[in-house]
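hey so u asked for the seq, here:
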Amino acid sequence: MSSIDKLISPRQRKALDPDSHAPLYYQLYTLLRNLILNGTLPTGTLMPTEQQLSEAFGVSRITAKRAMDELAGEKLVERRRGKGSHVIFKYTPGPVKAPLVGMLQEIESMARQTEVRILEVSELQPPAEIRKELELADDATAVRMVRVRSRDGIPFGYYESWTAGLKKKPTVKKLESTPRLEIFREQGLIITHVKQTLSAISAPDDIAEAFGIKPGTPLLSMVRRSYDSDEKLRDYLHVRYDPEHFQYQMDLTIDDA
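ran it, structure tokens below
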């Protein structure tokens, strides 16, 4: 197997479209650039030669050379006469980013299509860690909500949240009929940025009781931090999901740019 066979799949070699508005050199450059940026071609990898690229993708050597020149111009590869071109970009894993609008729509959709049981709605002084996250004074309060979501009578999510910036505490009746994000908007709290962290935990006694499972059962844990347009944290939400009845899925597409 040649080096190019190990680096670039047959499917990727057929990805260039002569009828596209984008020039062939740019299509080839974009394909190679993505392989470098996502770590498929790690630092130090010897890149295929212009001749190899020309033969593999069915393009001219001039097209292959221009694509490689673009990569070199971006400091992604280093070209040395007699030694070939090597990847010099160092890949560092980062958080996955996805469009927020679609995500918020999915959250509201799930809220409307499932049942909710409100366990608590209170205005309280949060624990020190939450006060620090929300940048609240020691004696400040926030709205605490505890809910259990079910589908067809089967509980799947235990939601605990602290929210700052609401004009008034929502009623139990309001929470039972209206998604929280809609309540936020009605009170002038607009979420523009969300960060989510997923992990796994063992079910504590109270959550195990709410789910009807044994304490210590593995659960999916998600912390969602929601920020306003000033990048101020306004809502801290901790959800525990029963993986027997809930799966967290993401469907992302690569940005063409």
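The chain has a mean pLDDT of 86. The two ends are 32 Å apart (CA to CA).
lmk if thats what u needed
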